[in-house]
Amino acid sequence: MRPDSRYGLRRAQRAGDRRSAVAAGMGACATRRHFLEAAATALAATGAPAQMRAAAPRKAALKLGTQHDSSDETLRVLAAFGVNHICGTLPSPRLDADWSVEGLARRREHIESFGIRLEMLPLPLSSSYIAKAENPGIMLGKSPERDREIDAICQMIRNAARAGIPALKYNLTVLGVVRTEPTPGRGGAHYSTFVYDQAAQEPALTEAGPLSEEAAWERIAYFLKRVIPVAEEYKIRMACHPHDPGMPRDRGFRGVHRVLGSVDGLKRFIEIVPSPYHGLNFCQGTVSEMLAKPGEQIFDVIRYFGARDKIFNVHFRNIRGGFLNFQETFPDDGDVNMIRALRVYKEVGYDGMLMPDHVPRIDGDAGGRQAFAYVFGYIQALIQTIDMDG
Q1: Is the dihedral of CA 260, 262, 268, 271 positive or negative?
Q2: 364-379: pLDDT as tens digits
């Protein structure tokens, strides 16, 4: 069975239904007052309770999520924290029994036994440097290797749909995540940092060799034009992570031009194959890194992609600084007003997961467990605050 998308299409259909109803009501009533009176009369006729008859804006069902491991110990902790929606871990880097319909269904059912919904899985297209990537042929542009890799990805999409998993996330990168030395943060925490002028570009070229904008777009389009039609057929939302961080367009980094490292690049990306199942794993931190003044500019970027229903998942992360020079901070210690950002997600009708990402490292906090717990509580509190807005 091919499960329906719980997000994009249904939200579009609901929006279309509302527009049709408003148009019909306005056509029948000469004034706004008459229209509201007619709407109230219609609601009363349905027997709706009086307290429900006053029109109210639709609430976006924002969800606290994560992309932690799926061990029983971790699932118990997440359930206790109220993290009831997750992106699971990679089943396997190859199309094997773990990626079979039966293997995926067992994984989903096991996670659900803890009261947690498996919303998404990663594909073996990670943020790793190309030499360590699971399927390097896709971004190296090598055939027939990339064709075999894409065929395997397409089968993973089919199997995930048949197993009842609604979304998959992935990266299309050569450089991986590039950072310079950590810098001190609040209370002596270590903030992951990137300063372009301090980044060692050695060796001068990666295993991919020189990668121009044109070559990068060709390889990305080659992948999307074969994969997204399968995702659309099987109703699986495909969420791509931006390049982290963006690099100067005229210089790139180690010979690589990062076309998904700018807002304009992401706009072009979502238009390559128009589909409600083609969108973004919207890392708010990474997108903020693309901006000169993220504290002012990020909100309109959220509106742009959110209004087009292209945000399938959110890494809810803050930074201090901006393009080519930034620190990754605790969510309440950066330049972006995270409460305002959450209000914009709600405004555009986003109803997916908000998850911690790249938490700062604290001495004595093995594995970042306490840092993650802090951010879980922060996000949960913000969601409750936004829900009180009405």
Answers
A1: positive
A2: 999 999 999 999 999 9
**H-helix segments, the chain:** 8-28, 32-45, 72-81, 101-112, 137-140, 145-162, 213-234, 263-271, 284-289, 294-307, 338-347, 369-387
Q: How many CB atoms lie within 10 A of CB 370?
A: 13
Candidates 86, 93, 40; CA nearest to 65 is 86
Q: Which residues pair with 237 in a beta bridge?
A: 167
Q: Which pair of structure tokens corresponds to residue 57?
A: 């804006």
CA angle 234, 240, 241 (to 5 degrees): 155
pLDDT for 50: 37
- Rg, the chain, Cα only: 22
Strand, helix or coil at 190?
A: strand
Phi-psi region of 262 (alpha: psi -120 to 50; beta: other; left: phi over 0): beta
- In this structure, are residues 295 and 335 in contact, taking their beta carbons and an 8 Å threshold? yes
Give Cβ neighbours of residue 193 (< 8 Å, ≥ 6 apart): 179, 180, 181, 182, 183, 326, 327, 328
Q: Is the pTM of this model over 0.90?
A: no
